[in-house]
Amino acid sequence: MTDWADELRRCIRCGACREVCPVFLQTLLETDVARGRLARIERADQTGRFTTADCEALTLCLQCGKCTEICKAGVAVPDIVRDAKARAGCATALQDTALAFLGDGVAMERLTRRARTFAGWLTKTTPDGSGLRLRFALPYLQKSRYLPKPPDAPYLQNHAGRQADGEKPVALFLGCGAGWLLDQVGEAMDAILEQMNLTAAVPEQTCCGLPAWGIGDVKRAREAAINFLESFADYPAILSPCASCTAHLQQHLPLVLAGTVHEQAARKIADKVHDFFVWLHQQSWQPDLTERRVAVHVPCHTRRGVRGGDALNGLLRKAGAQIVALDESLEQSCCGMGGSFGVLHPKLSREIGLAKVRAMLAAEPDVITTSCTGCLVQLRDLVDLHQSHVQVVHAATLLNG
Amino acid sequence: MKRWPICWQSISENELKKITHELRAIVGRESVLDDPGDLTAYDGDAKVRGVAPLAVALATTTEQVQAIVRLCARTRTALIPRGAGTGVVGGATPEADAIVLDLSRMNKILSIDATELLAEVEPGVITGDLQQAVEKKGLLYPPDPASHATSTVGGNAATNAGGLRAVKYGVTSDWIRALDVVLADGQLIHTGARTRKSVVGYDLTGLFIGSEGTLGVITGLTLRLIPKPPAKATLLALFKTLPSAGEAVQAVLRGAVTPAAMELMDATALAAVREKIGDLIPPDVSTLLIDLDGTPEQVQHDGKQLSDLLKQTGAVDVHRADSDDEAKTLWSARRALSPALYEVRSHKVAEDVTVPVTRIVDLFTGVADIAERFALPHACYGHAGDGNVHVNLLYDPQNEDETNRARQARPEIFRLALDLGGTISGEHGIGISKREFMSWEQGPTLLDLQRRLKRVFDPLNILNPGKVFP
To answer: How many Å apart are CA B338 and CA A31, to the nearest integer?
Structure first.
C-alpha cells in the first residue's frame, strides 16, 4: 500500500476546500470538509485507532475529488480517506454482504430474480414506469426511495460469453448498474456499435471493484481487479458505459494491485479501458438528436477520473442537440450519489443533488442524461421527487435515438 | 503584564457534561459537536494549530448566541467565535479549554437595498456569496480578501480584512455602517447607524471591527455598497529593475487615476511560476499588474493615460486587456504564484507587513537580504498600491534546520517593516502568532489602555481570552 502520511502532511489547512465540498456545503461542519477529515485521520493515526464515530464520519465523503481540484497543494484527499477507511475497517456487515454479491455473477443473477419477486410487494412503479419506489422504509433505504426496476432478463444474463465480430475486436465492460439492472444501456451500446458494423465481445464479468475500494475493502477490490484482468486481458479495446467503473479501471487498478504480481498487467490494461463516449467521439459515427433539448449531468468521475474527460457534451453538440445552460457552479456540481454514500446518507445525498436537478427542470429540457449508472439512478430519484415527467436516460440510450 | 486569573480556567468532566447538555438545549442536538474526532477539526485556523476545543456549538440565531454567551459567563468558560477558520494568525485557535462558537450557519443575506446602497447580513455569509448576490443587482461590495470564496463577512469584520482592491476601495472597516454585537454578558447592542452620516457617541463600530472576537460576538452587519462600475481594464507593465517598478507605483499614486488594484511581483517571485506562464513575461523583469474600473469611456481614457505614464516612468513594455479573457491571461501569473510556491516548499512563513508606499522597494530588497542570510527560498508579491506586501519565506517542515532558520528569520521581517516606518500586520491581524511582537510596534501605555478596554467589555475574560495582547 502507498504510504499517505507524507500526503497528509501537505495539507496546510487553508480551508479552500470549504468552497467546493458538496457535503460540507450542506452541513457546514468543519469535520465534513477535507481539512477536517484529514485532521481526524491524523488524530486517529496518532492515537493508534479509529473510533466508530470516525468510521461514520469517513463514510461522509463522496470521493468526488473537488477538494483536490481546488487544493493549492493538490492533496489527494479521496485517496487518503479511502486508505483510512481500509485501515479503520469501516465496512459494515450490510456493505460486506453487498460486496460479496457484487463480486459473484451467479449470486447477482439469483438476486435480480429474487428482487423481481419481492419488488411487487415492497414497491410500487413510478408514474413514468422507469422504476420503483419503496412503499416503506427498509434498513438504509428511505421510504419512497427510487430503485431501478429489475429487468426480466439482465443484460449480462443474456449476453455474457458473446464473442466479438467486425474489424475491431472491442469488448464491453458493463458495470453492475448496466449489467444487472438497466438492460437498455447495453442494448443501446450494441445498437450503436452495430451501426459501425461491430459486435462487441461480452466476456464473463463481475463488479469493477470500485465499491469495495471506496469502502476500503482492499481484499475484495483485488479479487474484482484480478477477475477483470483474467476476462479482459486479450482485448485491445475495452469500452464501458459507466464513468465510475471507467475511472476506477483507468486510475485505480494499478493502485489496487500494487505490490502484487499483477501490477504490471494492471498498468497495461488500464490504458486499454475507454469511456464509451470518449471512444465514440473519436469514431466517425454521427448521431442525430436535432432540436432535442438536453440537460446533461457530467459525472464527477468523468471530470476528474476518466481519461479524455467529458466527451458527452461534444457528442451531443455534434448530434445537433440543444444543451441547456446551467449556472457554472451547478453545472459542475455532484449529483450526491457517491456510491454507498447515497445508501448510507440518503437524506444528505438528496439535498446535495436537489439544486442541480431543480435548475435542470426549470430549463424545461426534453430529456436529462448522464453517463454513469449511479448518477442516473440518483437523477431519476430527484426528478421523480419533483413529480416531473421529464425522462432521465443513460447517454448511450439517448444517442441511440 | 500578568493575565488575570479567570482566564483559561480548566473545566472538569462533570461540568463539561452539564455545559454540552445545556448547549444542546440551546442550539439542538445536531448542532453541538463533542466527539474527539469531530473536535480536532476545530483545533486551529488556516495556519496556527492549538488544542481541540471542549465542544463546538453552531448557532443559527442571535438569541442562541446570547444564550451561549450567558452560559459561558455563568460557568466561566472561554468562548471562541469562529467564522470559516481561514485566518492565519490563530485568532480562532483554541489554546486551552474552550467552547468554539461556529457562526457558519448564520448565513442569511437579510436584505439588499439598491437605493440606500446597504446590505444587511448575518455574520456567517460567505464574502464571495455576498459579492455575487449584490452584483446580480448591479451593486458592488468591494472588500475582497484573497479568501473571499470561503471566508465569512463576520470573520472579515472581526479581523478587518483587506484585499486586492484596498488601494481604491479601502478595507472591510470602510464598508461597515452598523453592527449587532452580543456582549460578554449576553446583552445585545446595535452600534452605528444606517445613515451615511452619524456622529452619535463613540465609534464603537470601529472598535469591534478588528477586535478578533475579544470584545463581543458580531451577529449582524449593515454593509455599505456602491453601484458596480460597468467596465474594467487590466494593464501588465514590465520593468527591468525592481526600483523602477517601485518608482512607477509612486508615480501612479500621485497621478489622477486611482487603480482598483495594483500588484507588484519581483523577478524572484516570477521565477517560481516561470513554467506556468509561458512567454507572457520574459525572465529577469519585475511587473506591475493594474486593474482599472469605471464607465467604459473612463476606463478607456484612464487606461491610455496610465500606460503612457508607466512607459514614461521606465516600463519596457505594457500589455493591456479590455476583455475578461485577456485580463485572465494577464492575471494568470499572479494567480499561479501562490500554488507554485507550494511546489518549491510545502510550508512558508507568510507575513503581511505593510510599509509606506515610498518604501516598498526597500522592503523587497530588505527581505531578499534576510532570505539570503538565512538561506531560504523567498518570494515577495503584494498589494503595492497600499504598501501591503506578502513576504514569503519558504521551508520544508521535515527539514529541521531549515524550519529553525525560517523561525529565526520571521522577527527580522517585522523589525524591517517597523524600521521602514511600517506596521507588522496590514490585514491578517495579531491573534496568537504576532502577539509577542505587539510591543515592538505599540508602547506600554497604549497596550495598557487596550487591556483596560478589554476588561470593561469582558470583565470575566471569557471572549477569546489570551488573544492579541502579549
So the answer is: 25
CA–CA gap between residue A384 and residue A264 (Å, rounded): 45
B45 in A contact zone (CB under 8 Å): yes
Backbone phi, psi, residue B380, to 5°:
-115, 135
Helix A34-47 / helix A77-88 crossing angle, nearest 10 deg: 40
* CA–CA dist B345, A12 (Å, integer): 12
Q: In CATH, what class is B109-227? A: alpha beta
State the cell numbers at A166.
467486425
Closest CA of chain B from A54, distance in Å: 6
B177–A contact, CB cutoff 8 A: no
- Encode pLDDT of B130-164 as tens digits: 999 999 999 999 999 989 999 999 999 999 999 88
Does position A51 have pLDDT exceeding 50, yes or no? yes
Domain range annotation of chain B: 109-227, 231-419
What CATH superfamily is the domain B231-419? FAD-linked oxidases, C-terminal domain (3.40.462.10)
Nearest chain B residue (CA) to A30? B41
Residues B10-39 have pLDDT tens digits of: 788 899 999 999 999 999 999 999 999 999
Q: Between residues 398 and 437 of chain B, which touch chain A (CB distance below 8 Å)?
A: 398
Distance, in angstroms, between B126 CA and closest chain A CA?
Answer: 9
B342 touches chain A (CB under 8 A): yes
Count of alpha carbons within 13 angstroms of residue B430, beta-carbon side: 20
Give how far B5 is from chain A: nearest CA, Å. Answer: 31
CA distance B412 to B418: 10
At A260 the three-state DSSP class reads coil
Q: Judge whether B250 and B262 are in contact, CB under 8 Å.
A: no
Predicted confidence at residue B44, as pLDDT, reads 96
Phi, psi (degrees; rounded to nearest 5) at A141: -120, 120
pTM of structure: 0.91
The enclosing H or E element of A295 equals: strand A293-297
Q: What's the mean pLDDT in A298-314?
A: 95
* pLDDT, mean of residues B436-461: 96
Domains of chain A: 5-88 (no CATH), 104-280 (no CATH), 285-400 (3.40.50.1860)
The pLDDT-based confidence of A111 (bands split at 50, 70, 90) is: confident
Q: Supply φ then ψ for residue A170, to 5 degrees.
A: -100, 155
Contacts of A58 in chain B (CB under 8 A): none
